[in-house]
Amino acid sequence: MRVVVYIIVIVILCFTACKKSKPTEPDVKNPDNSILSIKADTGQVGETQITSVDDSAKILIYVKNGIALNAVKLMIVTAEKATVKPASGEIVDFSGDAPVVYTTTSQSGVSKKWHVQIKVYPAADLSKYVPNAQPDPTFNNYFTRFSGWNSGDGAQSILLPDGRTVWMFGDSFIGDVNPDRSLVSGKYALVHNAMMVQQDSTFTTYHSGSDSKPESLFNPESPQNIIWASHGVADKGNLNVFMMELAPDNKGNWTHLTNHMAILDTKDFKIKKKIKVPYYNKISWGERCYTDANYHYIFGMSTNGLNTVIHLARAKHGHLEEMWEFYAGNNTWIKDINRAVPISVKPYVTAPSIIERNGRYYMVTQRNFFSRDILMFRADNIQGPYKDEVKLYTTPDVSQSYISIVHPHFTQDNRMLIGYSLGGDIFKMVKNIDIGRPMFIRVNLPE
């Protein structure tokens, strides 16, 4: 028994001795002091440009117009176990002309300087801009329809959070269409507003009444009045649609009476309620809308003789039913509509639509209700001033064209989608609905 114990002890001692005799590996420290990635935490345009030479490097980052250069956070990833100063996520002032020096230090103690500049992405030179407007066959085919909503004006799009698109219309025909593009006798109705919901290439029509006897989706309390749907926004699970109510005067002309906002459930598009917009002042609110990360912006339109006056209000997300703020000049916003001022834009601009590019705002609009020219203007802020006028397109159609609208969420391959309405004689449309329908073009983005 003792012999067995001795043998075990000897084996353990030998094993321990062998283990101790194994040479230790040297503690190698990582010499890599590289920056693997570096980008602005918000508003960066394009890729980071890095030029690295030996122990120093130059870094250039462009950001959107409107980003405060005196308080920028850079998110930095370094080589393993390397450090960087200023640190990743630290607020740094880049407003000066000289680069800001960042220093990386490897685990082994080797340092490298990185000269970082952040600049506002330069505005496009619109004198060299070529729109290259071309008809868009996909959307023109979408709106060549044979049932449901089949013709009308407006065609204002609203993107829903789930990717579907709502299309709002004014005066429209709903019903069946013959192969020769005439309406099927006894199977159509003229309504004053309607809606379609698009999912991919499938469109569903919404109206009141029945399929055999369609009526306007939104109806006024007074039966002699009518409602034209304007634009709207998606807000907290709802669809908020702006509309104007018109009443006939003693000459039979339609007169703008007031504005409403309908609130619909985006699941089934049933109308939850309709409320009166309390800011009339002879302004048609909701002609166009624009939404950013914080606010819904609501454009309003009034007339001054032959000129159009454009107004602008805003409301925070989820607060459209509360007090709006109105633009009051000098980049200020107030809650008293009587002290609000129009935005600065040419007097022949009609209801504007907006597309944002790199922190600049491009307004697409019609020259006026009787011109076939589609125009674009540019501003550094949503409230303007809008300048740098460019003619994008002159519609070739022999009939009147109007209501030019940009649809930002359908931008594709740096080509924005713009729609406009043909203003055909509503009585002649019974024989050919294509004289009163939306048409679509693609135009190069300005930047």
UniProtKB/TrEMBL annotation:
Transmembrane segments: none
Pfam families in UniProt: DUF5005
Domain of life assignment: Bacteria
Protein name (record): DUF4185 domain-containing protein
Lineage summary: Bacteria, Pseudomonadati, Bacteroidota, Sphingobacteriia, Sphingobacteriales
